[in-house]
Amino acid sequence: MIDELIERMLKGDKRAAARLITLVENDDEKAAEIVKKIYRHTGKAHIVGITGPPGSGKSTLLDKLIKAARAEGKIVGVIAIDPTSPFTGGALLGDRIRMQRHSTDPGVFIRSMATRGSLGGLAKATNDAIKVLDAYGCDVIFVETVGVGQIEVDIVRTADTVVLTTVPGLGDDIQAIKAGLTEIADIFVVNKADKEGADATVFELELMLDIEKEKWKDSWRPKILKTIAMTGRGVKELWEVIREHREYLLKTGKIAEKKKFRAEEEVKTIVSSMIAKRIGRKMQEDELMFLIDKILSREIDPYSAAEVVLEKSLGVKV
Questions:
Q1: Considering the domain boundaries, does residue 10 fall inside one?
Q2: Domain total in the chain
Q3: What is the pLDDT of residues 128-147, one digit of tens each?
Q4: Is 197 left (phi over 0), alpha (psi -120 to 50) or beta?
Q5: pLDDT category, 117, cuts 50, 70, 90?
Q6: Is residue 8 part of a domain?
Q7: Secondary structure class of 288 (helix, strand, coil)
Q8: Percentage of the chain lying above the pLDDT 70 cut
Q9: CB distance 249 to 255 below 8 Å
């Protein structure tokens, strides 16, 4: 079945691509099989992360970016990462509603995925889903994150270009943005720029970048743009800067550095997942609970407990 789906997907069958994403999202063993078979067809798409605080208009902005990319004939993939429903484990927000007008466009593939507790705010299967869309033939793949704070830095392990959206009037929240997300942003977007305080927000961001001006001496200095996503104002300029950043990465060879970093991080994640599964198979739950009880009673410390787990389940003596 998987071979048939892959064959159909490589020929441009959207339903086959959707089915493959469902498999990589729900079945780790099938995910590994699928990635092994499609990997040589990947590596061509430009992956753009859209992140930022809740209410900053990410989905509306993305809706307009899809239109800009399609105007150039680009095949567009979108993965909208939603919070997980505590009842069903499925995606909760359904951000595709905001992009519904693109759903009938054969050149646009939109998929919501649940975080399912992933600490980085990204679904565990996101990287595999991106590979499916890459092999499917997408020129650009947008990954819109949940927008839940500093844990969104996980997007740097996924995207070539990171767009951070914010809005005027965040107050103290801008400090939290500065503390974490600005470390990974390639482009800043002050959305809802018709609101009071837009220029002040731009000034704060410019000041923050100026403080670290030595950091940008021989590299890309993040751009700051103002947009009004609801009307589309500034979106064309944003799309042009996204393309400009792509050209910068290609021209300087930075894209190879990013891909190397992502490959290293992905291998670490897969190894960790494999170890956790093997431990789960080797050790009974009551054995683990016994160790937890000993930790709580201070008979053993967490590090020693971890060493016991590794030695008993994997035969590894630390």
A1: no
A2: 2
A3: 999 999 999 999 999 998 76
A4: left
A5: very low
A6: no
A7: helix
A8: 84
A9: yes
Tell whether 135 is covered by a domain.
yes
- Shared domain for 184 and 287, answered yes or no, is no
Which domain CATH number covers 78? 3.40.50.300
The answer for residues whose C-beta is within 8 angstroms of residue 171's C-beta and 6 or more apart is none
Q: Please give the Cα distance from 214 to 193 (Å, whole number).
A: 29
Domain housing 300 = 267-314
209 and 302 within one domain: no
Q: Between β-strands 108-114 and 76-82, what pairing exists: parallel, antiparallel or unpaired?
A: parallel
Tell whether 32 is covered by a domain.
no
What pLDDT was estimated at residue 125?
83
Q: Assess whether 106 and 200 both reside in one domain.
A: yes
What count of other Cβ atoms lies within 10 Å of the Cβ of residue 301? Answer: 11
CA distance 213 to 127: 33
Distance CA 201, CA 198 (A): 5
- Rg, C-alpha atoms of the chain: 21
Q: Are residues 290 and 152 in the same domain?
A: no
- The pTM for the full model equals 0.86
Phi, psi of 8 (to 5 degrees): -70, -40
Could you identify the residue written with the tokens 């001496």?
217
Give me 249's structure tokens. 């990465």
For residues 55 and 160, give the distance between their C-alpha atoms in angstroms, rounded to a whole number: 24
* pLDDT tens-digit series, residues 240-281: 999 999 999 999 999 999 999 889 988 888 888 888 888 877
* The token pair that represents 35 in the structure block: 């990635």
Retrieve residue 72's tokens: 């150039």
